[in-house]
Design brief:
Elements lengths: L1 H4 L3 H20 L10 H33 L4 H29 L5 H35 L7 H28 L4 H10 L3 H11 L1 H31 L5 H21 L2
Helix pairs in contact: 2-5, 2-6, 2-7, 2-8, 3-4, 3-5, 3-6, 3-9, 3-10, 4-5, 4-9, 5-6, 5-8, 5-9, 6-7, 6-10
């Protein structure tokens, strides 16, 4: 802790968010344990991913957004609504644009639909990781400037909590991508890539701590809206194409429970 305390806050934020990205990488690496793309297993992991994303959208994004809005003397419900609604609208517009482009092609096949689902999944998790990285950067920057009683210890605990939460999120990207037919290496690459935005946004957060603090509540809620849209539009409906629909729904509950426990236990 004393070593970290002697570093520049930007370097502190970079080290902390490199840790959170590394945990995402470890979670994405679980895709290598699925040697054969068994449909039942991969559908179950798709349901699991949906549960993880639903839980993360509240405990990792919406709830912190409301708390931050209150601490910054904003109107919490208005901030949460604006961010959440427009996050979903962005994905809705992207979905419609992709559908139009899809219709212009002759091969409007299931492969194209799978690609769209993969793209939306990667985008939503990446959007979710940007404000989390910013939050870590802001925490270290706030500690350096003694803003609102922020401390280095609290910033380190925040990074640790976000990092551990990123493990199931890395899995929630890589395994569904494997289900869509990607090779294990490609699924792993895109899974860990969704977390690489955290070091970048962490450094930005530390550099622009005062300005970013007021944007964070909106960005957190925005990412939550994007995630919920993908879950409702793509992940749950696709997992329910399995003959064992009730079992797939159970895996959604398992994913939600895992993420909920991590979020609450790690604060």
């Amino acid at each position: 802790m004393s070593f970290i305390g002697n570093l520049n806050p930007v370097l502190q934020a970079l080290i902390a968010t490199l840790f959170t990205w590394f945990i995402t990488l470890l979670g994405a690496a679980l895709v290598f344990f699925f040697k054969k793309p068994n449909k039942n297993v991969l559908d179950a992991m798709l349901g699991f991913a949906a549960g993880v994303m639903i839980a993360a959208s509240f405990w990792s994004l919406l709830s912190p957004s409301i708390d931050m809005a209150e601490s910054l003397n904003m109107i919490p419900w208005l901030v949460a609504f604006i961010g959440f609604f427009f996050g979903g609208v962005l994905l809705f517009i992207g979905d419609k644009i992709f559908t139009v482009l899809e219709k212009k092609k002759e091969n409007n096949s299931s492969n194209q639909k799978g690609f769209k689902r993969s793209l939306m999944l990667i985008l939503s998790i990446t959007l979710h990781n940007i404000p989390e990285g910013l939050a870590v950067g802001v925490a270290f920057g706030s500690a350096a400037y003694n803003l609102s009683g922020a401390t280095l210890g609290a910033a380190c605990l925040l990074a640790l909590g976000i990092g551990l939460q990123n493990f199931p999120e890395g899995t929630a990207v890589s395994v569904p991508l494997r289900r869509e037919g990607m090779s294990r290496k490609k699924a792993f690459f895109y899974g860990q890539l969704s977390g690489i935005v955290e070091p970048i946004s962490g450094v930005i957060g530390a550099l622009l701590v005062l300005k970013v603090r007021f944007l964070l509540p909106y960005l957190l809620a925005f990412a939550a809206g994007a995630m919920i849209y993908v879950v409702v539009q793509e992940l749950i409906p696709e997992s329910q194409t399995n003959k064992k629909k009730d079992l797939m729904a159970l895996f959604t509950l398992v994913g939600f429970s895992v993420m909920m426990i991590l979020d609450i236990a790690l604060g």
